[in-house]
Amino acid sequence: MKLNELLKDGIYVLKESNIEECNLKARLLLCYLLGQSKEYLMINDAEEIDTETQIAYYSLLDRLTSGEPLQYITGHQEFMGLDFLVNKNVLIPQPDTEILVQAVIKYLEHNCGKENVKLFENLEKRKINKPKILDLCTGSGAIAISLVKNCPNDVEVVASDVSHEALKVAQINCKKNSAKVKLVESNLFETIEEKFDMIVSNPPYIETDVIPELSMDVQNEPHLALDGGKDGLDFYRKIGENAKKYLTKERNAFLRNRL
Ligand SMILES: C[S@@+](CC[C@H](N)C(=O)[O-])C[C@H]1O[C@@H](n2cnc3c(N)ncnc32)[C@H](O)[C@@H]1O
């Protein structure tokens, strides 16, 4: 069977199972299997594909049509231009979460630059030279690592999650992206002992009753990462109620001034 025939068949199999973006996904699966780029598929479309590879491709298509997310099969997801390992123990970082990271970066640019050190003047008193950020519910570490890699000024980032398995993934992602992040296993603030200049979080936020209605691939992500309680806001409430105790004194004063 030729490469273009195999690809055509892959697209057909996915289409029959109502998989969204079947064309792209069939291509990406084949690229992953062959260890080649999308350009390679175009240029070498007449290449003869051996039976073993064909069987392997159909088995990957099977996993996809059974609801396994593409990113769990390939083990990769891009976020803020960085490559992250993902597996069944972590939520696949979503493009819209990049908005949160960008907002933090913008905030630091405006409030922590040389011309406006006032907000962080306490840093000197605390004998540290960079703001400290806590990423609660870090999962794959996508937010924490992107902040370390993209913030205009040096930042110290602590990232926590209740899931030991998720933290193992975050650890690998820190190494993969050469990012220094302190990882802490904690049920929200339970074992957090430090104070921070900023707390960021993308916690679970799906309403419990809505989860069974989500697409199969989302349902295959860890429910621990999805379930935000009856109205989806459990984590926001808990974080809101406790955050003050974990923010530096000066930061609390700043927040009060803005309320
Ligand atoms: C929506 S995912 C977000 C992951 C990552 N921050 C992102 O944006 O891709 C929520 C994360 O919260 C973690 N989590 C769930 N309950 C928690 C708890 N009680 N304390 C800390 N982390 C928790 C899950 O393990 C999961 O990794």
Q: Any key phrases for this structure?
A:
four-stranded parallel beta sheet, Rossmann fold, 259 residues, binds S-adenosylmethionine, 10% strand, alpha/beta
Characterization of this structure:
By secondary structure, the protein is α/β, with parallel strands linked by helices. Helices cover 47% and strands 10% of the residues. It contains 13 helices and six strands. Helix 1 packs across helix 2 (22-34) and helix 6 (97-111) runs parallel beside helix 8. The longest helix is centred in the first third of the chain and has 15 residues, at 51-65. The chain is elongated. S-adenosylmethionine is lined by residues 90-91, 93, 97, 137-140, 142-143, 161-163, 166, 187-188, 202-204, 224-225.
Summarize the structure.
The chain is of the alpha/beta class and 259 residues long. The protein has 2 domains: 3-66; 76-258, Rossmann fold, CATH 3.40.50.150. The chain has helices spanning 3-16, 22-34, 38-43, 51-65, 70-74, 97-111, 122-125, 142-150, 164-176, 216-219, 223-226, 234-242, 249-258; strands at residues 76-79, 82-85, 132-136, 156-161, 182-185, 198-201.
Can you lay out the helices and strands and say which pair or pack?
Layout: H1 3-16, H2 22-34, H3 38-43, H4 51-65, H5 70-74, E1 76-79, E2 82-85, H6 97-111, H7 122-125, E3 132-136, H8 142-150, E4 156-161, H9 164-176, E5 182-185, E6 198-201, H10 216-219, H11 223-226, H12 234-242, H13 249-258
Parallel strand pairs: 3-4, 3-6, 4-5
Antiparallel strand pairs: 1-2
The structure holds S-adenosylmethionine (SAM).
